[in-house]
């Protein structure tokens, strides 16, 4: 058989043995044996070996090993995607029916660095994804749910061709198909890559190229059940070296390397990867209404060209169905369950639970009993409630204050159904809330070094989240951090009055009430509710001073507002301090989202529910953009604010100014006591200035302000945009002038300032308290609002919104500029020396004039620039006349001379058009 020489020796031997073997006696004539050469010529070697009885088919070159061989010695955790573990190795089994079938893929960060926004217990979002096979390669693909065609099949095909999915990961098959189940096996170590994109956030924070180190990453734990498979990966991030600092400092400060880790070149991040089952039939979606503030999943429906705006918005809500559909009050089939993390200190668990269960009152109003339940994670639990199977409230620690609490959720974009939620509360919030415990934190943790001086960081300083850096819509909630600042100020005032003693049971109860309010707010987010910054307008000042009324009805229309604490000014009656019960808006929003409605009348019923917001007290709604988020959206409605209280925001601003002055007076009058916190009195001064810094916008919005309503066309009666009354605009201008621009209210005793020490245990300890810098921060915030291009634009446009007969009495841009300039430079008319605080204010005003004169920014209306030049020319003449009069101190004369020179140069400079 010379042909056998062309075959591999093992195959040739098998063929030779087969040809020599006697045929079995089957009772039938034996078929003539095919010549070996014919067999060899008609089939490849693998096929030839398979034809031989008892032969083992060798694998194809490069083919995966058998399933059983790869998983030998491994233990399997059965579930949606079975997970195999063998020591440090892990594999994911993909059932045959789960290939190309959508599921929810999400990643949560259970452990992190502990500073600058890199905190533990964070959700990063998720995608509808699927496993897709190409040969022996398995792809994890995120499906594109932003563009759909809901009605037309041809449109669906066009959308699929027009918009791409995204590849999240790819891995070769680790084994051949399972011989019976036909399932696939992949090595789970592909999850050691940076699928969430955390390295982008690291680069933003540190400006260093940290990347995942697969060789030193491992799986902490895995778990699987029929609805969810999770793997927690401990990812090592590293950078080869920390670069040396530049010899010449750049104009923009360089962030320092990590400070919270032993070695700044290395740290670990724990990802909880969730593969979550989606129902074959999505929950029935419910469309959003602009009059009710609910989060939504939005997409472009390109299958219907009848709609000019193809955007569709499905509100976010949990799947909640009655066990007894016909009963007026029924328990749900599946309640919304929140797990209290085992790391929550025992003394706070009752307040956290109370904040969660408060929402059951709203669900009872629409027929659900015990819609929300709370469970405690056992202290010895070996499972992580950061997985997608447990909505949780978690406790985190950080080296800086950062945000104090956040309540994100994950939803199915096909329907808006909420699938998971994890509220994070920072232990720093409780430290921040107890003003007398701040000395335990580094100075940098309680104040921020900004261009404004020594002021606590506010909304504008919040660290961006990973989702926002990756271009995803990421609503920001800063309520808990700001509520902690409110609590610190309130305790400052009450302690200065002698009404609460540091460390007393009353102080503890005060902080516990704050915690309950924060939890109520964040739980509201996880139920689907957005912020409502008109909620604080519900009560009159008389109602706020009525303790019985506030205890029964709360302080506002909604816990989803950033409600200020109700602190009575001197001579007023004290109502409840905290808002610890739901408001009418909260009941109404839950009704819109969760009330069981007949399918055939649902649209009409929802329209009736939403329309109540146009007429019923307490149901007014305004979101973050209405309140102001920066840029074009500066917040033009003075009735839409963060951290105000009562139906008269301008009166609230005046009251907070009065409270700050009272606090400063009392603190200065009270001598230091041996053993007290050495930074307490220093913080009280800063907290008072921060109140003014935060509320100055409340007054500033009146000038050039427009009242807004969300009424739909045909509602009748109310205009959607209406200019603020002239008298109120002028009252706000006068309040800013008398309260902030004059320096009479900001005098402190020298013997008091000299006792305000620093924490000598800290490297970044600061120095003498900079009163001038604190005041200037508040004053520049007021100037920036009054001199902004958007304020100018609205003032110039206001004549278009009133009848011709009313236009002569309108507040004009010229009036605002003239009032400001006369207020800021009043000494030029009255004569006399100008003190340092006023000189600082005048310099900042002059700097803004110079920018407008020389750079001519394009965002400013031309009329605003013309008026700026007019009033700058007038100021030049007044400065020249003042200098000619003489009789000033050296400092005042130098200031006036420098101001005149700088202004004259700007007026005569070549204008650079922006």
TrEMBL record:
Region forming the signal peptide: 1-21
Domain DUF5118: from-to ranges: 64-110
PROSITE patterns for the chain: PROKAR_LIPOPROTEIN (PS51257)
Keyword flag Protease: yes
MF GO annotations: metallopeptidase activity
Domain DUF5117: 122-323
The protein's name: Zinc-dependent metalloprotease
């Amino acid at each position: 058989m010379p042909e056998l020489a062309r075959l591999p020796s093992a195959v040739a031997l098998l063929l030779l043995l087969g040809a020599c073997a006697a045929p079995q006696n089957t009772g039938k004539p034996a078929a003539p044996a095919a010549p070996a050469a014919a067999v060899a010529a008609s089939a490849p070697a693998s096929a030839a070996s398979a034809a031989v009885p008892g032969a083992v088919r060798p694998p194809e070159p490069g083919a995966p090993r058998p399933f059983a061989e790869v998983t030998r010695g491994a233990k399997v955790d059965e579930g949606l995607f079975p997970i195999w573990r063998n020591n440090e190795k892990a594999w994911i089994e993909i059932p045959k029916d789960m290939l190309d079938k959508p599921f929810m893929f999400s990643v949560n960060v259970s452990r992190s660095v502990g500073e600058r926004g890199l905190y533990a217990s964070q959700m990063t979002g998720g995608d509808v994804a699927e496993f897709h096979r190409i040969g022996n390669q398995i792809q994890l693909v995120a499906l594109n749910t932003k563009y759909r065609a809901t009605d037309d099949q041809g449109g669906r095909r066009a959308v699929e061709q027009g918009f791409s999915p995204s590849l999240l990961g790819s891995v070769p098959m680790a084994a051949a198909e399972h011989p019976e189940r036909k399932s696939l096996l992949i090595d789970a170590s592909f999850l050691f890559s940076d699928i969430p994109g955390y390295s982008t956030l690291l680069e933003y924070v540190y400006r260093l190229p940290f990347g995942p180190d697969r060789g030193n990453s491992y799986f902490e734990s895995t778990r699987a059940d029929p609805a969810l498979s999770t793997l927690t990966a401990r990812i090592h991030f590293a950078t080869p070296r920390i670069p040396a600092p530049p010899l010449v400092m750049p104009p923009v400060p360089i962030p320092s390397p990590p400070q919270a880790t032993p070695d700044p070149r290395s740290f670990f991040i724990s990802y909880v990867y969730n593969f979550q089952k989606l129902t074959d039939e999505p929950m029935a979606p419910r469309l959003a209404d602009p009059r009710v503030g609910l989060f939504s999943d939005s997409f472009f429906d390109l299958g219907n060209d009848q709609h000019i705006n193809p955007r569709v918005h499905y509100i976010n809500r949990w799947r909640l169905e009655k066990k007894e559909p016909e009963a007026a009050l029924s328990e749900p089939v599946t309640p919304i369950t929140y797990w209290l993390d085992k790391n929550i200190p025992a003394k706070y668990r009752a307040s956290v639970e109370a904040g969660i269960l408060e929402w059951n009152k709203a669900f009872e109003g629409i027929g659900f009993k015990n819609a929300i339940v709370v469970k405690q994670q056992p202290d010895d639990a070996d499972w992580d409630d950061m997985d997608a199977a447990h909505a949780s409230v978690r406790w985190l620690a950080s080296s800086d204050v950062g945000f104090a609490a956040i309540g994100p959720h994950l939803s199915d974009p096909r329907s808006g159904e909420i699938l998971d939620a994890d509220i994070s509360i920072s232990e720093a919030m409780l430290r921040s809330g107890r003003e007398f415990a701040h000395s335990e934190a580094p100075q940098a943790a309680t104040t921020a070094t900004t261009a404004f001086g020594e002021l606590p960081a506010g909304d504008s300083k919040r660290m961006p989240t990973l989702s926002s850096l990756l271009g995803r819509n990421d609503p920001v909630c800063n309520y808990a951090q700001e509520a902690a600042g409110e609590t610190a100020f309130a305790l400052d005032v009450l302690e200065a009055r002698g009404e609460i003693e540091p460390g007393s049971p009353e102080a503890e109860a005060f902080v516990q009430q704050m915690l309950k309010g924060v939890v109520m707010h964040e739980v509201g987010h996880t139920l689907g509710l957005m912020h409502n910054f008109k909620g604080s307008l519900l009560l009159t000042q008389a109602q706020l001073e009525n303790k019985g009324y506030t205890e029964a009805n709360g302080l506002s229309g909604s816990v989803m507002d950033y409600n200020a604490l109700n602190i009575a000014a001197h001579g007023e009656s004290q109502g409840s301090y905290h808002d610890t019960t739901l408001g009418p808006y909260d009941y109404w929003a839950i009704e819109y989202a969760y009330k069981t409605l007949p399918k055939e009348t649902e649209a009409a019923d929802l329209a009736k529910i939403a329309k109540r917001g146009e007429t019923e007290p307490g149901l007014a709604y305004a979101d973050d953009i209405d309140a102001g988020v920066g840029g074009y959206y500066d917040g033009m409605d003075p009735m839409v604010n963060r951290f105000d209280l009562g139906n008269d925001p301008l009166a609230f601003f005046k009251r907070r100014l009065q409270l700050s002055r009272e606090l400063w007076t009392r603190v200065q009058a009270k001598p230091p006591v041996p053993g007290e916190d050495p930074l307490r009195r220093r913080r009280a001064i800063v907290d008072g200035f921060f109140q003014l810094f935060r509320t100055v916008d409340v007054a500033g919005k009146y000038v050039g302000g427009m009242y807004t309503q969300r009424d739909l066309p045909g509602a009748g009666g109310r205009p959607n945009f209406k200019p603020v009354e002239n008298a109120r605009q002028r009252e706000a201008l006068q309040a800013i002038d008398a309260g902030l621009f004059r320096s009479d209210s900001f005098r402190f005793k020298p013997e008091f300032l000299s006792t305000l020490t620093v924490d000598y245990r800290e490297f970044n300890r600061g120095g003498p308290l900079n009163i001038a810098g604190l005041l200037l921060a508040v004053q520049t915030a007021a100037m920036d609002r009054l001199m902004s291009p958007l304020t100018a634009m609205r003032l110039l446009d206001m004549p278009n919104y009133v009848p011709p007969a009313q236009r002569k009495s309108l507040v004009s841009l010229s009036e605002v500029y003239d009032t400001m300039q006369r207020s800021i430079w009043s000494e030029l008319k009255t004569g006399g020396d100008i003190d340092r605080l006023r000189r600082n204010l005048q310099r900042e005003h002059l700097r803004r004039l110079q920018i407008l004169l020389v750079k001519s920014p394009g965002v400013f209306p031309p009329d605003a620039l013309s008026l700026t030049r007019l009033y700058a020319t007038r100021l030049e003449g007044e400065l020249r006349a003042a200098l000619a009069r003489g009789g000033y101190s050296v400092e005042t004369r130098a200031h006036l001379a420098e101001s005149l020179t700088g202004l004259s140069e700007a007026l005569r400079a070549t204008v650079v058009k922006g």
